[in-house]
Amino acid sequence: MQTAKRKVLLLLCALALAMACAGTIALYRPSVAAAADPSFTLNGSSHTIVTIDPWEISEGEAEWGVLKINSFRATADGYSGGIVYTTKWLYSHTPVREGAYEYAFEYTGGKYVLSEKNRGGNTYIPVNGLVISLTDKDEKWESAAEGAALGKNVVFPDYAGAIEIHGTGTSDKVADKTVRIGIDKINGRRDENQAVYYNSEWGSQTKQNEFGAEIKCSLQEDGSFEIVEVRNVRDTEMSTIGARDFVLSIHGSRRVLLGNDLVARVGDRVELTGMKFVDLNKSASHKLTAKNPTKPVKDTDLDDLNGNIPFPGYRAENYLIYYDKNYDKSGNPGSAKFSNFTGCNEWGYEILVRKTSSGDAYPIEGVIESHAKQIDNLLSEGESFILSGNGTAETFLTANALNGAKVSIDKDGVVSITTTPDSYVTTAVARFATVNEKLQSAVDAKYKLNANVNELWNDYRSSASSLIGEPEDTADSATLYGYAKKIAGQEAEEVIDNVTLADFYGSYLEVLNLCYRIESLSYQAPAVMSIAAWHRPVIGKETSVEGIRETLELFKKVNFNTVYLETFWNGYTMTADSEYVDYHIEFKDCDYSPYDDYLSAFIGEAHKLGIEVHAWVEDFFVGYEGYEESNILTGQLPNSDEPAPDAAERSGWVITDYQGNQYTQFEGGKYKFIDPSNPDVREFLIGYYRELLTNYDLDGINLDYIRYPVQNGYGYSADNKNVPYDHGYSEYAAKKFLAEQGYAENQQTLAKLKRDLNKGTSFVWNELYDEWTQFKIRQINEFVEEIHGLVKEVEAERAADADAYTSTDIIMSTSVFPDSDVVTKKCQDWEYWFKQGWIEVATPMAYYENANTVTQKIAAMIAKLDNISYNYGGIAPYFMGLNPYEEVVQAVAALNGGSFGTVIFDSKTILNSPEAVEYLSNGIYGNSAILPHKSIDKLLSAFAEEMKSRKELYSISGEKAEAWDAALDALAKMPFSTAEEIMAIRSEVYRIQTNARDYASGYAVTRIAEEMENLNEVLDVKLSRWYIDNGEWIPADGLRPDQVAPSPDPDPEPTPDPDPEPEREGCRGCGGSFAAASGTAAIVLVGFAVFCVVRRMRRAGK
């Protein structure tokens, strides 16, 4: 697929990759020695490339993967032949090079255009262009012009722009010249070897980890930029970003330059090149694919995941489609399940345009009215149309969709979107009106909102109104309307200044932020809900009890009731005196007095705040490349230099891929896994987990990496997709597997296994590979069962010493991806574990950018497991690099999917994003919640108190208030030790739900019904757990005992008519048994059974 990106020599891509991977070695020196064809053709003459961007760092000293730079060199000296300079070169100009013939190319109009020829070096390097420097004179030098051939057509990295640092010359390591750093991305997650530009649109902080370096630049009154802050690698404080600031955050080889006082110092002047700090008058275009399609644009445009039917709305990958009143989606079965006008799915974006041109003549013109993932309908008045895009077209729409922006479609089908300052004003005004209307509706509907909702709302509304201003405001008004007029005046005089633009755009972003705050107030979480996060101990911050308290107090601000604390990670433990595992090297010297170590301190302080702590353990993942190995891999005793008794055996614990590599290829990094098939490995981990659960007052254990490394079957590398890729190999695993397959003892070797997995002349997995995969799945299943057995043993031991623990119960949970292919790709059959009853809580990792996908994935998982376990949906907007408000959106999405709560991945969301903290604490996490997995007595007692506290909200008073309190108090006191008693509790909850009008009216009835429905869902799981824990049911064997239909009574007694005014005492006196239920209670139970079926169908998305 061709894209509007730069095309240059194939060797440049290979060289750029080689350079990027060399960032943490002591000597950084690019080379083309490995290039298959280090040559190119220019003006018909062949030339050889000897290097690309030749700068080097030497005499470095590596410390935790971070270079300490003693010297730096960027020069062309020593190279004879052609050199290519790109934006990766650290200067804006090529070096002086005597005798050099240089060509500078800019990419414009879809091709490279020769912009300059120069002799002797010092040639300007265009951003998104390149310079070719030759030592031998090209015969056609004098006549070289546009269109000079650069050889093979391949994609060259596209830069969003660059910053140029004009240094003060105080460093003796870098020459006093303009240093340039190319920008890979604007406002997005910083990936490996990237330089990312962040402005206040991203938020107040970059929210990136400590493994990059950052410089913060501020706009001065004279319109120039100056470096005001430098953050070194491994500094934990994140850079803050104001309306007049931007931050450049760099990972990879270039980060060492910023973090070693080489090229960036406070006070240096900075210039943006190839981009604007604020660009309000933007115009972008994209080619239209189709207009009102009635069939697939191409015959191959079929959705193979849904029966090879046409894609919904006929919108395939990267398509941009126009829909208006003449569009008919009824003929497309893929569109039928979507209620929006186009019938397109959520994997795209749509804009609704009010048409301003007449008829069907081109150009078709209009103004954007609204934009969203899916637009419900056309405008009810006037002419309108919808543009719907996927892939590159989606990016085009989301980047330019502002209410009020102008849209034009020419006769060639080119769609252009043009924004102006007025577009931003229109967007801000419309958004402000929408969120206020939404919050007012929530207040009217009697949702339990933030206790300070009125005060906060007034503050936010007042601030936003002041920033927006009025249409009559003059150009000297510091409002959006005023700034827009001032900018219009400057445009007329061609004297626009960055300060005015920054102030206008900053005000616009602050209005949007205030709108997010207002909208966040409109959400209410259920009274019964898990609010949690996965938390990795913070290096450099949580070095004392005070540091831990500071973290936990922030967690409490967003009402966390659970923390999944990373206790076993990178092969280390957060405990001081383990008999199995080294204390984590970053924390072993810290003082947590009066506690013994980090883990005991965290548990103790968390419990004081009413927060549960579950040990998040990484099971078979025990190390990664570049990180000091723990004693698990070195074979030593924990926290000692002495060898362990089993040191020799441990050398065989690490599994490899088919090619023999220990490090994984398709994980988040280069990881090492130990062998799940090895009983010594499993015994070691079980012993360590017993130590954790016995010696520490943990509330649960959360299993992560409870699987094999990713195996793709094929695709070992991007360059050779036909090379096999599989993982899990060891001598022990081979022997165990081949023995099960009936191989003779002398044939049970790793070499034999690898040979027999492929008996063809070219590699093709055979039938034995399927058996091998099933073998690995069994190893994981067996280990999960062993952990379950351990948990039950320790629970019994805790019960005998109950005073030593907050709770004798240990919640066993697991972090799994909800996708169905994890069974074959990771040998992780989580459905089997749950249906054996081993896992009490599911924390599915629903890590997706699209909130609708979060809902669908969680709903699909719940449909498989139904009422076997509690589901707390894992979400990761921060990790995915999304807007902080997506934390709210995805939390709501998880609940819509049927989850009983959420787990945020990870706690950096709370620690590093003040916007996310405010949005969450305002609404969806604005009230404390009751943990669903709490014991029934604690659950009901807390629920009753919570619902009694809502009498004023629900306008319940007088005798109805007394009846309401009495009903809830009675509910809280009901017995719960048998299945029949739990069913009776559910019956009573359903009775309160269906008789809510006895206590309240209007919207309050609906709110009561919602809370009771959610509580009954939780109680349904508790009934399942009762049957499982008491050995009366294994879900895999069939229906739950209470769901099995009894044999029909040959002569059944007729059901008596209900008593119109049943005695409440009589209902309580039924003993909670279905068999004893009669009269009204029997009718309630029959109705409740129907409710259960309907409710489960809804949760399953049916």
Description:
The chain is built from 27 helices and 46 strands. The strands form eleven sheets. Strands 31, 32, 33, 34, 38, 42, 43, 44, 45 and 46 form a ten-stranded mixed beta sheet that branches. The protein has an eight-stranded mixed beta sheet with strand order 14-13-20-18-17-19-16-15. An eight-stranded mixed beta sheet has the order 21-30-29-27-26-28-25-22. Helix 6 (480-493) runs antiparallel to helix 7, helix 12 runs parallel beside helix 15 and helix 24 (979-994) runs antiparallel to helix 25 (1003-1029). The protein is globular, with a radius of gyration of 32 Å. The two termini are 38 Å apart.
Sequence-ordered SSE layout with sheet pairings:
Elements: E1 6-8, H1 10-21, E2 39-42, E3 45-52, E4 55-58, E5 61-63, E6 66-68, E7 71-74, E8 82-85, E9 96-108, E10 111-121, E11 130-134, E12 154-156, E13 161-166, E14 178-183, E15 185-186, E16 195-199, E17 213-219, E18 225-231, E19 245-250, H2 255-258, E20 269-273, E21 283-287, E22 290-291, E23 302-303, E24 309-310, E25 320-323, E26 349-355, E27 364-372, E28 384-389, H3 392-400, E29 406-409, E30 414-418, H4 421-444, H5 453-468, H6 480-493, H7 498-520, E31 530-535, H8 545-557, E32 562-569, E33 572-573, H9 598-608, E34 612-617, E35 621-624, H10 631-634, H11 647-650, E36 656-657, E37 671-673, H12 679-695, E38 700-703, E39 713-714, E40 724-725, E41 727-729, H13 731-740, H14 750-756, H15 767-800, E42 811-814, H16 822-826, H17 830-835, E43 841-842, H18 851-865, E44 870-871, E45 873-875, H19 886-896, E46 901-904, H20 908-912, H21 914-922, H22 936-948, H23 958-972, H24 979-994, H25 1003-1029, H26 1064-1068, H27 1079-1099
Parallel strand pairs: 3-8, 15-16, 22-25, 31-32, 31-46, 32-34, 34-38, 38-42, 42-43, 43-44, 45-46
Antiparallel strand pairs: 1-12, 2-3, 4-7, 5-6, 8-11, 9-10, 9-11, 13-14, 13-20, 16-19, 17-18, 17-19, 18-20, 21-30, 23-24, 25-28, 26-27, 26-28, 27-29, 29-30, 32-33, 35-37, 36-41, 39-40
Helix pairs in contact: 4-6, 4-7, 5-7, 6-7, 7-21, 8-9, 12-15, 18-19, 22-23, 24-25, 24-27
